[in-house]
Amino acid sequence: MSEDFQNNFSWSNSRLSTFKSCKRKYYFDYYGFWDGWEDEAPERKKPSTG
């Protein structure tokens, strides 16, 4: 299913603000959890259910 979607690079003022404030948050908000919906995704990528 992930071949149907692409995480294309884009930029905005809100992304820049997140990047400047916390690079770790930026990574996880925009890239770190990509493909987390896949059944075989590692647990760290799956959304929390709590």
Give a nutshell description of this structure.
The protein is mainly α.
Provide a descriptive summary of the structure in words:
- The chain has 50 residues and is mostly helical.
- The protein has one domain.
- Helix 1 crosses helix 2.
- The longest helix has 10 residues.
- The N and C termini lie far apart (25 Å).
- Beta-strand segment tally: 0
Mean pLDDT: 75
Counting structural domains, the number is 1
State the assembly state of the protein chains: single chain
Helical content stands at: 25-40%
The DSSP helix count reads 2
Indicate the overall shape.
flat
Order of helices and strands: HH
Q: Note the gap between the termini.
A: 25 Å
Notable characteristics:
50 residues
Write the layout of secondary structure elements.
Elements: H1 13-21, H2 23-32
Helix pairs in contact: 1-2
